[in-house]
Design goal:
10 helices; disordered C terminus; repeat; transmembrane helix
Length: about 1300
């Protein structure tokens, strides 16, 4: 009511205002010529409230619900509001994209002015809003409303929310309108009072099942804001009723079935809405839910194989649907007959004669119950007791017991139990054998006779045998009182036990016992033997006197063996040769063995520094030995290695380290470098750095080549080595013929000169890409390359490349230009024969030509040369390459008289050429031409064409195509627009297409009416792996990558810290050391350490005491041992070297590296006391091989990437051996260096034949000569190797040496 009063009041006020304005207007006062009027618009549309004022004097504005919108026509702050009008009198308010908030009263107000009072006029804007989609409460659109058949009333409520005005609602049943039993009302929406919600309730009374079942009820909602048809929602009525009772077929109560019969049960239920769910149960457990519906019935068929457990099982069929409160059921109980599957006999199988044994036989479940009978010796036995009981698995279990009294004649009698199902006539049976106990015979031992010696380490097998007894005997072996494991075997009534042992020295005099027993023995029967074992000594120890050794002074080495049975013989070994010593007698030792002592007296020379003297103790009866060795420390002046380079080749700007370290003792050596006999101040030459005998050269220059000398000095004297440095450098082209211009038919000559060291054959060469060099002649002479080109023609114009390469560094190139003179030739393509420009603009004519020498251009029009002195014409020439030119004529401010043909003239000294180009107004482009097929795939075709004249405007292309014999073309615009090659995609496999191309610009389109045909491939490509598949591939989480990186950095830092710590401690120990005689165990003398595929020289020990003294802790061994040094308990028998004469400085700043090779046994050249060849296990790296090549050959295997390692890699790693030498773990091997230059005269070496697998990277042989050997050394009479003079003549030719010495 309030709303209508507001409208009435507004109309009244407006009427009064109109009357006043009409009266005033007569007198020329401002007044409304058009009054605003009430309007209604749909939300989102545009509303326009009209207002026009004549004789306006005051300012005009609109208000909304009393709020002034302002005098600006754009109405700031209200982007959707604006004031529009075609004349100055119109002030219409336009609202775009209207919203409900725009609903209200608007006034057009004109302010007062001189003699003009204010005036205003208003109107009401109503916004119409369509309602939301109608909704039937409780049901979605298209859903089914299910009603029990007992329900007689249904109310459906349809709601249409938030409409403006409220929606009207209609109901339909199966498309027919429903007018009765409907209640309609409207109310304010909860969202906003401006919106209205309509509700309509229909009451349905189902009359009969067939009338309302499956009926469709539709609710339609509409209002004045809805465009198109009304909004609808629909539901379907479904009247529910229970299903029919289940009917079971396939089995009747009381019917008997057997196990493994197949039973097919069928349960059927008829009627019901919906049809019932049919479910099978067995003993109240669901077993099958797979029913099927067919018309007006539901059926569940269950097929199974009958088992014994199905006896008395209840099978039930349940039927239910949404109407039934509980399932409708039908059931039966199944009767199954089945025999027992097995019988089981329990009772004692072993007993003594005279005892009574009770046996019980139990059958498995059976229906009906089984009958049990007993048999023995072909006769039935009386049953002591028998009973039948129910089985939890169905059926019955029968139990029967018999009692048997045993005599001596009842041994191994078989008793049988038989169970029979009489109803089925099926029987099962089982047996048991009863045995009588008696003891076995005493055991005997075979395989060893008392007093027979056994060698330690060999396998000794002894067999213990016992026969008879029931059960058979159990045999056990004992060593003293310790039980041993043995292999037992039973054959009939004979049992044997074989004991296999690896004999040890503590088995000497040990007693082994075998016992036999069973249940019939009161105490075990036994027999025993005592072993005699031969064993070699486990260690030898060497003691040196005096502790400080100087060349020429007499010294003694004493070797003592550990216990051996029988005693061991001692020999001394040096460089694979036996040396005589003095025996000092025998003494008793552990395990019943003997210990021997032998003394070697010698006079060492400087060549014996670092020499290894080995002591070998051999048990001759078993031919087994053990070895130890000691490294001598002898003082001598510096000696350069024979591998030191006398000729050094270095590439310019490269860096190199030259190792000129010396062998010296003491090792404190001062090095001085001379050039051309003059002492070189290293500090003044920044590229040279001399440290500890290693000359480091950085970025060497040509000027550094020359003759040098290295002087080494210690407290014992001075030694000098001369060498030459040769600097090699890559080529540089110092001069080249830049340009040659010749006439056609002539000859061109080029020269290219390069500087390099060395100058190699064919260092300078001439080439040209995609050019036939057969018409040229290329020669080379001493760094100069010449090129002659004959019979020139214009195609020879181009660049020739001179390349210089001496395989030092990168090759260098320079180019030379050949230009052949010929007359100009203008490009007369059809697209260049035209030009276009509109009047008043600048026209541009392009003329392209090629020729040599330089080409100039001239333009004519109507036979008159154009005057370029004024601003009308401008000509520019661009040289695009050596012989090609582009000339552009620009005509400014084009007029009608400027249109027409122009002549372009190209001129050089060889001739002229001309071409006519026509200037016209802009037009549509010329058609493309020379359309060609390029290639095709299974779904694409690629074609190309030449562009015609573009009409003076930007031109694009369009491809028109269709399948051959089909109607209608398909058009595709070419991208990018100016491209002249295009690929059509999305075509069909193996089809032929007709194609053509058009050109178009803003003035039109021109087709090339001649077309081509092309066919797509008939073979489809294989499927590719999709990008999404690759993107979905599992990626490593970033957290894992970060954790791995952090752990890696931590471990790297830890390793660097440990290396620096051990290097410093090692140096400190070397600086504090005072002993001159180094001591080591067997591995020092006879083998290298092998770690990570690298064999390297051992370091010298500072301990000269015997292995029998516990004088080193774990830290001492930690520094001396290379990584992973662990030889095991038998290392002394596995590793020994025939080369004990490899010498070098006791301390090295950078030891040489060795490749790893496993030691292999070789037969020594000398014989033992009995004349038999002795086996000697040697490390081939210690064998003195012929010295050929450089230190690189000695320590580095060619063809591999293995590089020498630093000193920290070799020595400063954790030890892996026991901390005490009492445990007979050998000390570390001695340090090796390469041989000295003074050591070229080698001692004779034993002849050996090595296979390729035996040869390591060559190890530098020791220094020294035959004459310098100790007079106590016994020469090898069988030696047939090179003599000392031949050895002295060996020359090392390889110019490089790996590593540097300390």
């Amino acid at each position: 009511m309030k709303q209508w009063l507001e409208v009435y009041f507004t109309i009244f006020i407006g009427t009064i205002a109109i009357a006043i304005n009409i009266g005033v207007g007569v007198n020329g006062q401002q007044q409304f010529s058009v009054f605003p009027s009430n309007i209604s618009v749909i939300q989102g549309q545009t509303a326009e409230l009209k207002c026009a004022v004549t004789n306006r004097r005051g300012s005009i504005q609109w208000t909304k619900d009393g709020f002034a919108l302002g005098y600006d026509r754009d109405i700031p702050g209200f982007r959707r509001y604006s004031v529009i009008g075609n004349t100055e009198r119109e002030f219409n308010l336009m609202i775009i994209n209207t919203m409900v908030s725009d609903d209200g009263e608007f006034q057009c107000q004109v302010g007062p002015a001189a003699n003009n009072p204010p005036i205003s006029a208003g109107a009401y804007l109503t916004i119409l809003v369509p309602p939301e989609m109608p909704e039937i409460i409780g049901y979605t659109n298209g859903s089914v409303v299910e009603l029990p058949n007992t329900q007689d009333l249904l109310r459906l409520i349809c709601v249409a929310r938030n409409g403006r005005p409220a929606a009207s609602i209609k109901w339909f049943r199966n498309g027919e309108p429903v007018l009765q039993n409907i209640n309609y009302l409207t109310e304010d929406s909860d969202q906003d009072s401006k919106y209205r919600t309509a509700k309509s309730t229909i009451t349905i009374r189902p009359r009969q099942f067939s009338d309302e079942n499956n009926a469709f009820y539709t609710c339609e909602a509409t209002n004045s804001a809805i465009v198109g048809g009304p909004l609808k929602t629909v539901v379907q009525i479904s009247i529910l009723k229970p299903p029919g009772s289940p009917e079971i077929t396939g089995y009747t109560n009381g019917q008997v079935v057997k196990t493994n019969d197949t039973l097919q049960l069928r349960c059927t239920s008829r009627g019901g809405n919906p049809l019932g769910q049919v479910v099978w149960y067995r003993n109240d457990q669901q077993i099958d839910f797979s029913y099927v519906s067919d018309g007006n019935k539901a059926v569940n068929e269950y097929t199974f194989t009958v088992q014994s457990s199905d006896n008395n099982a209840v099978y039930r069929c349940d039927v239910s649907n949404v109407v039934t409160s509980r399932p409708i059921t039908a059931e039966f109980r199944l009767t199954v007959h089945f025999p027992p599957k097995e019988v089981t006999i329990t009772g004692d199988k072993l007993a003594k004669a005279g005892e009574t044994v009770t046996l019980t036989c139990v059958s498995s479940n059976s229906n009906p119950a089984a009958v049990i009978t007993w048999f023995a010796k072909g006769q039935s036995l009386p049953v002591a007791s028998s009973n039948v009981e129910d089985s939890p698995e169905g059926g019955f279990i029968t139990r029967s017991t018999v009692t048997v009294s045993l005599t001596n004649q009842d041994h191994n009698v078989i008793y049988t139990c038989q169970a029979t199902n009489n109803a089925l006539g099926q029987t099962v049976a089982t047996t048991i054998t009863l045995s009588v106990l008696y003891p076995p015979d005493p055991p005997i031992i075979t395989g060893y006779s008392a007093g027979t010696p056994v060698i330690a380490g060999q396998v000794q097998r002894m067999r213990c045998v016992s026969s008879g007894g029931n059960p058979v005997a159990t045999l056990k072996w004992y060593k003293e009182s310790n039980l041993l494991e043995a292999e037992n075997k039973v054959t009939g009534n004979i049992v044997s036990s074989q004991l296999s042992i690896i004999t040890k020295k503590n088995d000497n005099g040990a007693t082994y016992k075998c016992t036999a027993s069973n249940e019939a023995t009161s105490s075990p029967l036994d027999v025993s033997v005592t072993l005699t074992v031969y064993f070699p000594p486990s260690t030898v120890t060497i003691v040196a006197q005096p502790s400080v050794i100087r060349a020429g002074s007499t010294m003694n080495l004493t070797c003592t063996t550990a216990s051996s049975n029988p005693h061991a013989d001692i020999v001394w070994i040096k460089s694979g040769r036996r040396i005589a010593g003095r025996n000092q007698g025998l003494r008793d030792d552990e395990f019943g063995g003997k210990s021997a002592v032998n003394v070697l007296e010698l006079v060492p020379t400087w060549l014996d520094h670092g020499a290894l003297y080995g002591c070998r103790a051999t048990n001759t009866l078993i031919s087994q030995s053990v070895n130890d060795g000691i490294t001598l420390n002898v003082l001598f002046k510096p000696v350069f290695s024979s591998l030191s380079l006398e000729q050094v080749d270095i590439i310019e700007d490269q860096s190199k380290s030259l190792n000129y370290t010396v062998h010296a003792n003491p090792t404190e050596v001062t090095y001085t470098l001379y050039r051309e006999g003059i002492k070189l101040n290293i500090a003044s030459v920044s590229r040279f750095n001399l440290a500890l005998g290693v000359l480091n050269i950085t970025a060497i220059k040509k000027a550094d080549k020359g003759n040098y000398s290295m002087e080494a000095r210690n407290s014992e004297g001075t030694t000098t080595l001369n060498f030459t440095i040769n600097v090699r450098y890559p080529p540089s082209i110092t001069r080249i013929t830049d340009t040659v211009m010749e006439d056609e038919g002539g000859t061109a000559f080029f020269e290219c000169i390069a500087d390099a060291n060395p100058l190699v054959p064919n260092m300078v060469r001439w080439t040209r890409e995609n050019y036939d060099m057969s018409k040229t002649k290329v020669t080379y002479e001493n760094g100069k390359g010449y090129l002659t080109v004959y019979d020139l023609d214009k195609a020879d114009t181009g660049e020739f490349i001179c390349t210089a390469d001496n395989r030092i560094g990168s090759e260098v190139t320079k180019t030379a230009q050949l230009t052949v003179k010929y007359a100009p030739e203008i490009d007369k393509s059809r697209e260049l024969s035209k030009a276009a420009s509109n009047k008043g603009l600048t026209g541009q004519l392009v003329c392209k030509a090629e020729g040599a020498p330089k080409v100039t251009f001239q333009w004519k029009k109507n036979g008159v040369v154009l005057d370029t002195s004024n601003n009308k014409y401008s000509i520019t020439t661009t040289k695009t390459n050596t012989v090609q030119y582009k000339n552009i004529l620009q005509i400014k401010d084009v007029r009608k008289a400027d249109y027409g043909p122009y002549q372009c003239i190209a001129i050089n000294e060889k001739g002229t050429d001309n071409f006519e180009i026509k200037l016209d107004g802009t037009s549509s482009p010329d058609a493309p031409y020379d359309i060609e097929f390029v290639n095709a795939t299974h779904n694409s075709i690629t074609l190309k064409w030449k562009a015609g004249f573009d009409g003076g405007l930007p031109t694009s292309f369009r491809v028109k195509y269709r399948q051959v014999d089909s109607r209608g073309f398909i058009y595709v615009d070419v991208q990018p627009p100016a491209a002249t090659t295009f690929t059509l995609t999305g075509l069909e496999l193996g089809h032929q297409y007709q194609l053509t191309v058009s050109a178009f610009n803003s003035l039109g389109e021109t087709y090339q009416y001649s077309s081509i045909t092309a066919k797509t491939s008939s073979v489809a490509p294989p499927e590719d792996i999709s990008t999404s598949t690759l993107q979905n591939a599992e990626e490593v989480p970033i957290i894992i990558i970060l954790v791995v990186c952090i752990v890696g950095v931590f471990l790297l830092t830890l390793n660097v810290g440990l290396i620096l710590f051990f290097v410093r401690r090692r140096r400190k120990r070397l600086e504090d050391g005072s002993d001159t005689t180094s001591h080591t165990n067997t591995l020092e003398l006879y083998g290298m350490n092998k770690i990570d595929n690298v064999t390297y020289p051992p370091s010298a020990s500072d301990d000269v005491r015997s292995c029998g003294t516990c004088d080193k802790n774990i830290d001492d061994f930690y520094d001396d041992y290379p990584p992973n040094y662990d030889m095991g308990p038998d290392y002394k028998n596995d590793y020994i070297s025939t080369n004990l004469d490899n010498r070098g400085s006791a301390y090295m700043s950078r030891p040489q590296d060795y490749m790893r090779v496993s030691p292999r046994p070789h037969t020594m050249e000398d014989d033992d006391d009995d004349g038999h060849p002795q086996q000697w296990t040697e490390d081939p790296y210690q064998v003195a091989l012929p010295r050929k090549g450089s230190m690189q050959d000695a320590y580095y295997r060619p063809g591999t990437d293995t590089r020498p390692k630093s000193v920290t890699d070799m020595f400063d790693r954790p030890a892996s051996r026991p901390s005490s030498r009492c445990e007979r773990t050998p000390p570390p091997p001695p340090v090796r260096t390469s041989s000295t230059r003074l050591g070229d005269n080698l001692p004779p070496l034993p002849a050996r034949n090595y296979g390729p697998q035996d040869l390591p990277p060559r190890y530098a042989p020791p220094p020294g000569t035959v004459d310098a050997l100790s007079p106590n050394i016994v020469s090898n009479p069988h030696y047939n190797g090179p003599d000392a003079q031949q050895a002295a003549q060996r020359v090392h030719t390889e110019p490089r040496m790996r590593g540097h010495l300390v």
